[in-house]
Amino acid sequence: MGSPLVHDLIRIHAGSVSPACVAKPDWVEQSLERSPWVVVRRAETTAGRIAVGVRGHERNQRWGGFIQQQQVEQLVAPAELRLKDLPHSRSGLPASRALRTLEQALACFDLDWGPGGSVAFELASGQETVGIASDLDLVVRSPERLDRANAAELLDVVSKAPGRVDVRLETPVGGFALEEYCRSSAGPLLVRTSTGSLLLQDPWEMP
């Protein structure tokens, strides 16, 4: 099992999620009892701990905490969810149709990509979290620099999908929106890192 990365999904098998800086709401344990899945979030951690987010039943129920490495039962990366399908009764949702379309449209791109957000959570856990108004979040892991010409081509393909798609590029430094990267030209870009958001000239290199 590799080291967890931001946006990976984890099924935990023992213990609870310890609080970060916000008290644990009552719904957190209920949510984990119903579906023991958490998502790796961006935060500084100490050895043996993983920063995770817990998703509740309501859209506004999101909470961040930590688990211990030994609590990990299963680790699923976004790219592993690309070929999974929502149940037939859910296949007509815009986010589901967009994912199926992009599976073919992005075949010519040599990229490590997959769904994130509510689509990833539902595909991994089986819990219904995708709604008719849900966007499709895509995670593209880009350890090597993606030039803006190729980024613009990727954005053009994604923009033709049936339904709104938000693409987040993840580099060794942090994460940022594909659309913002294409629009920023040669200027600085707001990048989310484990220590907070930074304006960086090169999002692949920490100053």
Strand content: 25-35%
Shape: globular
Decide which structural class fits the backbone: alpha+beta
SSE topology string: EEHEEEEHEHEHEEHEE
- The low-pLDDT segments are none
Helix tally equals 5
Proportion of residues in helical segments:
10-25%
Average pLDDT reading: 91
How many strands? Answer: 12
Q: Work out the radius of gyration.
A: 17 Å
Biggest sheet overview: 6 strands, antiparallel
How many structural domains can be distinguished in the coordinates? 2
How far the N terminus sits from the C terminus, by CA atoms, comes to 31 Å
Secondary structure: elements and pairs:
Layout: E1 9-12, E2 18-19, H1 26-34, E3 37-40, E4 49-55, E5 62-68, E6 72-76, H2 94-105, E7 112-116, H3 117-125, E8 136-141, H4 148-159, E9 165-170, E10 175-177, H5 178-183, E11 189-193, E12 196-200
Parallel strand pairs: 8-9
Antiparallel strand pairs: 1-3, 1-6, 2-5, 3-4, 4-5, 7-8, 9-10, 11-12
Could you please describe the fold and organization of this structure?
The chain folds into two domains: 9-76, no CATH class; 78-200. Helices cover 23% and strands 29% of the residues. It has five helices and twelve strands. The chain is globular and about 45 Å long. The two termini are 31 Å apart. 31% of the residues are buried.
